[in-house]
Design goal:
The protein is about 5% helix and about 55% strand. It is mostly beta strands.
Length: about 150
């Protein structure tokens, strides 16, 4: 399944685990392709807003919106319907995840964390991590490339 966020494309690979929870493996389809002139992103500059209001929930799936996209990194907002998630994967860069709404379960290098609104975790580069929505939830993902 291919998901679009602005002009970025993500490959979403749904997988169901042994407990019947659907997870989605998330991969940036074209990591070097960034559109720094996207009008929707430009419209956010110099304004006050609530991050969790910039991405809506969609039944049975994961939705996203990239709000900053640069060669040096990006900030992407995600919303997950209940029981949706990202399957275990690694990323070549550290990733900072902040929960904006709802609750989720996060796995990092074999450790499990219950997270809720306002909490943040850093996924270390090249370390396996995954997450699953305990309730509908929204998160901000900040990746800084080296």
């Amino acid at each position: 399944m291919l998901m679009h966020s602005g002009k970025q494309e993500y490959n979403l690979i749904p997988r169901t685990d042994q407990q019947g929870i659907t997870m989605v493996e998330y991969q940036l389809e074209n990591p070097d392709k960034t559109d720094t002139h996207d009008k929707k992103r430009e419209d956010l500059k110099g304004k006050v807003f609530r991050l969790k209001e910039l991405v809506g929930y969609q039944d049975g799936t994961v939705a996203s919106r990239m709000i900053i996209s640069r060669k040096t990194g990006n900030i992407t907002l995600f919303s997950f319907d209940e029981n949706e998630g990202l399957s275990e994967h690694t990323a070549p860069f550290d990733a900072v995840v902040t929960i904006l709404d709802g609750e989720c379960e996060v796995w990092v290098a074999g450790r499990t964390f219950q997270m809720k609104e306002g909490e943040t975790i850093i996924f270390p580069a090249n370390v396996p991590h995954a997450l699953s929505a305990s309730t509908k939830f929204k998160m901000s993902l900040t990746m800084i490339r080296e």
